[in-house]
From TrEMBL:
Its cofactor is Mn(2+). This is 3'-phosphate/5'-hydroxy nucleic acid ligase. Mn(2+) 1 binds at residues 74, 163. Keywords: GTP-binding, Ligase, Manganese, Metal-binding, Nucleotide-binding, RNA repair. GMP binds at residues 162-166, 270-271, 302-305, 309, 326-329, 396. It comes from the Bacteria. Its EC number is 6.5.1.8. It catalyses: a 3'-end 3'-phospho-ribonucleotide-RNA + a 5'-end dephospho-ribonucleoside-RNA + GTP = a ribonucleotidyl-ribonucleotide-RNA + GMP + diphosphate. One of its GO terms (molecular function) is GTP binding. Pfam families: RtcB. GO terms for biological process: DNA repair; RNA processing; RNA repair. Binds 2 manganese ions per subunit.
């Protein structure tokens, strides 16, 4: 589909979703964003749903300003995937041992590594820039500097919520490795620190929603936020890269006889800020629950833990600021999912997937998410599908 344009206060709201099907709270948030004095454009993805300040599934382009709540507290959250030389025929009938090996290699939930992971010992890990990255931690907000040790031990860990590690099979029978995570606790604390500062600034006092507080260009607060934002985005990228390398090591050891090889890793943020140029203007483009989908760029759009995911290639649609959805998107809150579904429902909806099926992950049940096929159909002018994947193992925190 092409987008539907809904009038907004300062810019039109371009929607790759049916406005009538979007919850009232999310529509109010979109209209609130469209009132911001610095806004130059707003694109809404088909997985849009209510968030804090700004909806999840929105792309906000501003000139000379950035809204930290429109990035989200998991700065740099995103996806990584890699195709392997294995096929479905190489997989054992019982996948529980492989799932256990993955969980042993990659800490989940609040878990940490016992010692810092040395990237130099990891399989094909790109170590250039690693030392420079950590040296820049000295410049982050003083309020978060005491988290240095924890940040180092959480590097290469999954977290909880909707984060996952999966082994998938595509429609041709090829096996893929895929994972979803972000900047862990250090990213969350940096985000919350800067959101608090933004909300205290004089120019934000008259905003329609205090959660939309922004930093403006050429101020010390903006400079400090940009430093910490881009550092946290890099942390998230390294975090996924280390997890993927650990995942690859597990697979290589488990399938030693097959001499597994891997294609280049596909990786994309979906909670982040990028400096981009549109219509002759230099803009700060915030994607909260959206991936960049420039022409020919690979991306990953996952579904829920029992459905499947898509590898896509961007079509470079400038109307969406070269963006696409980041996943299926929730159709009900976590608390609503826990009220509605049981562990028996979870077992039924994840049949055939080696995964947790206990009460701790009922809020992640496929029924709590929008149908991923419908979400893909609503953005055929944003991306083309390269591969459809179905998970056979799903590890969650």
């Amino acid at each position: 589909m092409s987008y539907v344009e809904v009038p907004g206060a300062r810019v039109p709201i371009r929607m790759w979703a049916d406005p009538a099907a979007v919850e009232d709270g999310a529509m109010r948030q979109l209209h609130n964003v469209a009132t911001l004095p610095w806004i130059e454009g707003l694109a809404v993805m088909p997985d849009v749903h209510y968030g804090k300040g700004a909806t999840v599934g929105s792309v906000i382009a501003m000139r000379g300003a950035v809204c930290p709540a429109a990035v989200g507290v998991d700065i740099g959250c995103g996806m990584s995937a890699v195709k392997t030389s294995l096929t479905a025929n190489d997989l054992p009938g019982d996948l529980s041992r492989l799932r256990t090996r993955i969980e042993q290699a990659i800490p989940v939930g609040r878990g940490l590594h016992r010692a810092e992971v040395d990237p130099k010992r990891l399989y094909q890990f790109p170590t250039s820039g690693w030392d420079d990255f950590w040296s820049r931690f000295d410049g982050v907000a003083d309020a978060v500097k005491f988290r240095r040790e924890r940040a180092a031990l959480q590097m290469g860990t999954l977290g909880g919520g909707n984060h996952f590690v999966e082994l998938c099979v595509d429609s041709s029978g090829s096996v893929w490795l895929m994972l979803h995570s972000g900047s862990r606790n250090v990213g969350k604390e940096l985000a919350e620190h800067h959101i608090g500062i933004a909300q205290s600034l004089p120019h934000n006092q008259g905003l329609i929603d205090r959660d939309l507080a922004v930093f403006v260009a050429d101020t010390p607060q903006m400079a400090a936020y940009r430093h910490d934002l881009f550092w946290a985005q890099e942390y998230a990228k390294y975090n996924r890269a280390i997890m993927m390398a650990l995942f690859q090591e597990v697979v290589r050891k488990e399938f030693r006889k097959a001499k597994v090889s891997f294609d280049p890793v596909i990786s994309c943020h979906h909670n982040y800020v990028a400096e981009e140029r549109y219509d002759g203007m230099d803009l700060l483009v915030t994607r909260k629950g959206a991936i960049r989908a420039g022409s020919g760029e690979f991306g990953i759009i996952p579904g829920s833990m029992g459905t499947g995911s898509y590898i896509v290639k961007g079509l470079g649609n400038a109307a969406s600021f070269n963006s696409a959805s980041h996943g299926a998107g929730r159709r009900m809150s976590r608390s609503a999912a826990k009220r509605r579904f049981t562990t028996r429902d979870l077992e039924e909806q994840t049949r055939g997937v080696e995964c947790r099926k206990d009460s701790g992950v009922v809020d992640e049940i496929p029924g709590a998410y929008k149908p991923i096929e419908q979400v893909i159909e609503q953005q055929t002018d944003l991306v083309e599908v390269v591969a459809k994947l179905k998970q056979v193992i799903c590890v969650k925190g």
